[in-house]
Amino acid sequence: SSQAARFGPLRRNTGGVRHRAGLEPSGRCRAGEPGCGTDLSEDGAEMSGLVLNIWIALSLDFLIGDPRWLPHPVRIIGRTARRLEGPARHALHNQRFAGMVVAAAVIGGTGFATWGLLAAARGVSSMIGDLVAVWLLYVTLAAKDLSVHSRAVFVALEAGDLPLARYSVSRMVGRDTGTLDEPGIVRATAESVAENTVDGVL
């Protein structure tokens, strides 16, 4: 039949379950069959490459963190969102909808730019593609900076220097920290560490 021509000869095992020729009843390739293992080996190699890229990106983050002199995509994304927000709120009377439009534009644009950059890099060579993939993974991580900033708050509190502790926590949160007492500083730091652990580590 046309179905059989499309999917290849079918055999029936002792349990009555039909399966393609060249496959064991369990679904595994039968040794020696043409094409057996090709897709699995390619998938395995791709997964191994991704795992290696992730480990390299993690190592880079722990070694150098997020240097201030290095342009960071998140800053570019933030500036783009701020520039789009005003015109969107001016053009759309429904402010909630305007915010949704800006969010969709920023998230969609970021995803498309990431995909385009990876596709272009891999079009040059697989090595360039891997280097770009490592860089993209690296800039999404923030474990080193999170540790540095939170420890700065801890050290300031240990020294009893509330002004310095307020300044240090202000680098981690968007709220006004000028009037925070010690418990408030601790809460703000803990909240920021918890939130950014999810965003920038996990």
Q: What descriptors fit this protein?
A:
single chain; mainly alpha; two-stranded antiparallel sheet; disordered N terminus
* N to C succession of SSEs: HEEHHHHHHH
Strand order of the largest sheet: 1-2
Give the % helix: 55-70%
**Number of separate helices:** 8
Description:
The protein has 202 residues and is mainly α. It is built from eight helices and two strands. The chain has helices at residues 2-7, 38-64, 73-91, 95-124, 126-139, 143-158, 162-170, 182-200, and strands at residues 10-12, 18-20. Strands 1-2 form a two-stranded antiparallel sheet. A hairpin with a 5-residue loop joins strand 1 and strand 2 (18-20). Helix 2 packs across helix 5 (126-139), helix 3 (73-91) runs antiparallel to helix 4 (95-124) and helix 4 (95-124) packs antiparallel against helix 5 (126-139). The longest helix is centred in the middle third of the chain and has 30 residues, at 95-124. The relative contact order is 0.07. The model is unreliable at 1-24 (pLDDT under 50).
